[in-house]
């Protein structure tokens, strides 16, 4: 695994990220408890100790407050891509990808109740599901380009970058769903490792796998 230095943040930026996190975690908790339709921006703001005006400095809607866990999502994606591209050449491309997103899965494990609530809300509300899909869509093209760059192929002429990202994205989704179904009592990070190992082994049928 390649360790990348975390950015040094000033006081103002740290405060911005902390306020965003407070609003996001509050929104998730309230929606998980009451349901999306029974929670307002005013409810979230009051519970987080800020004004609705401050809320709208961070989110366009209550739906975004539930779905967007981090204020620096775009920067986090760029750091993930940088980690991926910096991985040693002897590390396989799928493994380099998993190593690059390991921090995100560690965050899921470390913030179990928040992510259980977020996934519950997304599962139960089509509008939240659509918003989450739209957010993930924004990362597809940069990741395909990064895979193409690492493997030295033309993403417009070679299936590999898009196909690998689709396969790994499926592994991520399957991992999170199983983690959610187990109420977060198993490690999301370990599950992801297992999923990728299955992919690399050619997805052997369960009867042929060691248990």
Automatic annotation (TrEMBL):
Gene3D superfamilies of this UniProt entry? Answer: Homeodomain-like, Tetracycline Repressor, domain 2
Transcription keyword on record: yes
The name under which this protein is listed is TetR family transcriptional regulator
The record's section on InterPro entries has:
DNA-bd_HTH_TetR-type_CS (IPR023772), Homeodomain-like_sf (IPR009057), HTH-type_TetR-like_transc_reg (IPR050109), HTH_TetR (IPR001647), MftR_C (IPR041347), Tet_transcr_reg_TetR-rel_C_sf (IPR036271)
Tell me which domain of life the UniProt entry assigns to the organism this sequence originates from: Bacteria
Keywords assigned by UniProt, alphabetized:
DNA-binding, Transcription, Transcription regulation
In this chain the HTH tetR-type domain maps to 17-77
The reply to whether Transmembrane figures as a keyword in the UniProt entry is no
Q: Which PANTHER family match?
A: HTH-TYPE TRANSCRIPTIONAL REGULATOR RUTR, MYCOFACTOCIN BIOSYNTHESIS TRANSCRIPTIONAL REGULATOR MFTR-RELATED
From the record, what ranges are coiled-coil? none
The record ties this protein, via Pfam families, to:
TetR_C_14, TetR_N
Q: Which residues bind DNA?
A: 40-59
Name one molecular function that GO assigns to this entry.
Answer: transcription cis-regulatory region binding
């Amino acid at each position: 695994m390649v360790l990348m230095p975390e950015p040094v943040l000033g006081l103002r930026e740290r405060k911005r990220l902390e306020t965003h996190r407070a609003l996001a975690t509050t929104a998730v908790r309230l929606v998980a408890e009451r349901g999306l339709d029974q929670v307002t921006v005013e409810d979230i703001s009051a519970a987080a100790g800020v004004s609705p005006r401050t809320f709208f400095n961070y989110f366009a809607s209550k739906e975004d407050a539930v779905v967007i866990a981090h204020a620096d999502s775009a920067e986090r994606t760029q750091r993930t891509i940088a980690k991926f591209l910096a991985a040693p050449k002897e590390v396989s491309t799928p493994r380099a990808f998993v190593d690059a997103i390991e921090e995100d899965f560690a965050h899921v494990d470390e913030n179990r109740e928040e992510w259980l609530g977020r996934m519950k809300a997304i599962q139960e509300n089509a509008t939240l599901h659509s918003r989450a899909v739209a957010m993930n869509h924004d990362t597809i093209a940069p990741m395909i380009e990064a895979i193409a760059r690492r493997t030295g192929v033309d993403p417009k002429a070679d299936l590999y970058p898009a196909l690998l990202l689709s396969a790994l994205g499926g592994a991520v989704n399957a991992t999170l769903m199983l983690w959610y179904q187990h109420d977060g009592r198993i490690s999301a990070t370990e599950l992801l490792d297992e999923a990728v190992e299955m992919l690399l082994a050619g997805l052997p049928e369960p009867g042929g796998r060691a248990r």
